[in-house]
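Internal tracking record. Fields below are filled automatically when a chain is submitted to the structure queue. Please do not edit lines marked as system-generated. If the sequence contains nonstandard residues, flag them in the REMARKS field before resubmitting.
Queue: standard
Priority: normal
Entity type: single polypeptide chain
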Amino acid sequence: MIKAKISEIKSLLSTPKNIVIVPHRNPDGDAMGSTLGLYHYLKTYHHNLVVIAPNDYPAFLKWLPGDDTVLKFESQQEDCKDLINKADLIFTLDFNAFHRVGEQMAEVLEASNAPKLMIDHHQQPDDYAKYTYSDVSMSSTCEMVYNFIEMLNDTDRIDATIATCLYVGIMTDTGSFRFRSTTSRTHQVIGNLINKGADNTQIHNNIYDTNSYSRLQLLGRALQNLKIIPELRTAYITLSQTELDEFNFKKGDTEGFVNYALSLKGILFAVIFIESHQDNIIKISFRSKGEFSVNEFSRAHFHGGGHTNAAGGRSETDMTSTIDNFISILPQYKQELSKAHNGH
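SYSTEM-GENERATED OUTPUT FOLLOWS
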């Protein structure tokens, strides 16, 4: 655990360094909130800083303070390689295995001799970081960044900008504070961030009230495609590339769609399968309630992983084969899925 090394980290951060901060590929609210929150905090020490995202992210995150400074490895490879090679310290946030940034960027990070500092709440971290702060019980990486700043005795440096970034990740990764990972401590941190100037109503509006007409039409199609397997308490949604194109799909448009399937009465396991011609895969998001581990399910069958109740994966066959495969696997989990669950 990182606490033992806090004085070492404190002295490392006490003089200006070249620091690179990296979120995972296809970064979400927690990834961008934590990296930009940390960026603004470290700026108070006059470090030479850059956030390098592996690729682009949805428009609903682009209002975050500092967004205009973020480099994207996918479209600015040479600049990004150069900065990673010159880094004195690299923070990796909201992921715990290099493959989560994509193959090319992973190679550059692995080749770098700079010490790595990991802050992450996903299961089974790889052992690449000199300093590891990993805690799967945490609501979000943003809550961990708050704790990290607190361990450094620096919460007085948290201003409205830092508070705003950290609030975003805690709010989005807890499903607006409704997931089981939301503890009384999470609410205390949120309270402190509001006291520091995070405008909770404005942040919520900026993230969630940005629907385009075409996104709502796409949601309508997704819900039309919803299927349930009642005896296995499972629901799933499919979206083909043709359907995405029909409704002018933009990155981030399908965010949260899988939760509609999980909200069905009696359903414990929900999945969305989204075809991506660009990546030549079917992208999969898994959600569950209670004890059923989608992290284990995804790792075992779909090259993925994540948390007990939220994980991602992929399939390299076409949609029909992917769904057939998924349905053929499900009976192995009949016992786990048919367990009565907290009255659901």
